[in-house]
UniProtKB/TrEMBL annotation:
This is Lysosome membrane protein 2-like. The chain crosses the membrane at residues 7-31, 437-457. Its main location: membrane. GO terms for biological process: protein targeting to lysosome; receptor-mediated endocytosis. GO terms for molecular function: scavenger receptor activity. It is found in: Membrane.
Amino acid sequence: MSRRSCSIYTVGIICALLLVLGIGLMVAQVFRTMMHNRLKKEIVLVEGSRVFESWKAPPPPVYMEFFFFNMTNEQEFLNGAKPKLKQIGPYTYREYRYKDNVSMVRDGAMVSAYNTKSFVFMREKSVGDPAVDSITTVNIPAWAVMNKAKGSFWKAPMVSIWMDSTGSGFFTTRTVDELLWGYEDPLLARVAPTNPDVEKVFGLMYKKNGSNDGEFVFHTGQQNSLDYGRVVTWKGESKLTFWKSNQSNAINGSDGSAFHPLLDKNERIYVFTPDLCRSIYMEFEKDVEVKGIPAYRFTPPRSVLASKEENPANEGFCISPEECLGTGLLKVSPCRKGAPVVASFPHFYLADSKYVDAFEGINPQRTHHQTYLDLNPVMVVTLCAKHQSLTFINRKTRVLNETIFPVMFINESVVIDDASAARVHKLLTIVTLGSNFPLIIVGLGGIMLLIVIILLARDRKQKVRQTASHTVLTAFSSLAAKNMSDSVNPHTLTAPCMFVSVTVCLRAEGS
């Protein structure tokens, strides 16, 4: 066997081995399984893991934007006109969030922590000065007191007298700072001495700067990666007590800061939020890309806040017939000390049209008012935007019919920072290369196969040339022999010269 043939056989054997090995590994998904198992071990909430420090103190900046609905025709509305509202905002605050008092529980199977948040005002991202700008809106303390006194033979007249003496009306004009971080309300100051649960100060974000929502206990994900970041208990309880059904009181999902790796588009992800006093769910909407990172966009569907008629599973959120509202609204009074506060998406997005039509200046738009989470399906939250609208119920009185008044909505948003995005890119590259290593082997096998084909083609071409050369040499040898034996005319004597010339040429070409 020649050296060329030996080379062809060697390359062919290597090619076959690579193709068989690569295809076998692809079918068995060995490397993919290995990389996914490695990923599941890395993404756990324990000291030393890749995600633990960023879970305790997330590096991407979080911004909290507050938008208010300013009442522009208060007197006309009291006389029966349609209320006119003007959106004012944003008043933007940088939100610093971190996990405090972190400790491992049950031999590392769980971890407890407090979600502490603090806020710093950012003038450059805001429309004005919150200490100066004033908003006319529903007098929430007055309505809260009236709601408490409703139905009482002696409390209702007493509240009416207190409101007259303190000058408290249906609406109030306060600065943004006062509405957010608190002011001493004259009516609450009058009620507080008679009720220890009532504070003199009211504010939509009162006592929330530098505070926490209570102790959370989370699964670390060590025992089951699907439990990664899932809430086990909140304030020491594994379920809520605000609602009427076990399904409504269930604490499902994470707190929004962590989701298990290797998400599937068909999954329904759950987020427990203390502000809503319940868990909500989100479903896949579309594929997106954030800073070059592929992500799945999950959004809450209409059914989350649908009426009990539209979604019977929500009946448990109706404490009483009066507190069972239409689609798009959730009364959160049970966890707000009885205050008639309602949550919805901004501008009554996904709500019944009757709530939108009751006002001038309300314009729900999916682009601006949709709540969504953009999650990388492999490991991380890449973009998170949460929207929450707080509204207030006006009970039927001699002056007003029952009305849902928008007060404020929040746009809490976070986009992954460049440094974190670079780390995610690097990890995703490693995972992708590791998972697709069999493809690399198959590719090498394909290259080797191409080399074998080229070698075979060249070998065949060389054999054809050698055969042709041998045929020509044989023919001219016979002709020369014949010319030397014949005594013919003088012209035949030139044949040997021609033979020598042709032979030399052929040998030069074949060598």
